[in-house]
Amino acid sequence: MTNSEQTSVLITGANKGLGLEAARRLGELGWTIFLGSRDEGRGQAAADKLTAGGANVVMVPLDVTSDESVTAAVRLVQEHTNRLDVLINNAGAPGKIIAPADATADDIHSVYDTNVYGPVRVTQAFLPLLRAADHPRVVMVSSGGGSFAVVTDPEQPVSKMHELAYSSSKAALNMITVRYAQALPEIKFNVATPGEVVNHKFAATDMNHHTGQLTVTEGTDSIVKLATIGADGPTGIFIDRLGPIAW
């Protein structure tokens, strides 16, 4: 059993990249980390690495596109705690950059299943445990590519990435987060992007073949900031590591 006094966090897609680095950083704060991973082997390897560094980690097999997997994840977390302080919906799919004229509904649906339906599926399932916490927070990991202000700015590189699935899925996730924040004021719902919008920079991860200019640690600054906000902190905001981002 985990210590009921420790802050607990579930991070989806946490076996690598931003999710793993967020787990490492929050583990260093003494939090109990529920490390969600679709691949059990990679998830256990990541959990073992963090545990060796002194973190309190529980690996949670979790495929955000599966109702059965999410239900099983809730049961596993409940074996260790009667509440969840923070949920970080980090798991994401980049999809393929397909010209809008060639993109099919199936191309878009596969990305939405992870980036939109996944966070809704996980959030809804964990709401009872979140509501049991004194100061629950939910962090949605989005992208500057999900901002209408960014995508319509010709100076932004993403404005020239002509695709439908990824950017629209992140725009949908942003709206979903705002609606959660409005409807559930007892829980802080906020959106983080791992980039630096004003500087046209993004974090180096597998999703972009490590071509980003920011380190994975810098990329998690906004995620960790929103995960650690106080009870009087904001809800329904969109930030990168430098500050607020226009929707």
User: How many helical stretches?
Assistant: 9
Q: How many angstroms does the end-to-end distance come to? A: 41 Å
Q: Over the alpha carbons, how many angstroms does the gyration radius reach?
A: 17 Å
Low-confidence runs: none
Strand order of the largest sheet: 3-2-1-4-5-6-7-8
β-strand number: 8
The average pLDDT value, as a whole number, equals: 94
| Helical proportion, percent range | 25-40%
How do the SSEs run, as a string of H and E?
A: EHEHEHEHHEHHEHHEE
Sheet of most strands: 8 strands, mixed
Beta-strand percentage?
5-15%
What is the structural class?
A: alpha/beta
Instruction: Write down the overall geometry.
Output: globular
In summary, what is this structure?
The protein has 9 helices and 8 strands. The protein has helices at residues 17-28, 40-52, 67-78, 105-115, 117-131, 148-151, 165-183, 216-219, 221-227; strands spanning 8-11, 32-37, 56-61, 86-89, 137-141, 188-192, 238-240, 243-244.
Can you give a write-up of this model?
The relative contact order is 0.14. The mean pLDDT is 94. The protein has an 8-stranded mixed β-sheet, sandwiched between helices. The protein has helices at residues 17-28, 40-52, 67-78, 105-115, 117-131, 148-151, 165-183, 216-219, 221-227; strands at residues 8-11, 32-37, 56-61, 86-89, 137-141, 188-192, 238-240, 243-244. With 247 residues, it is an alpha/beta fold.
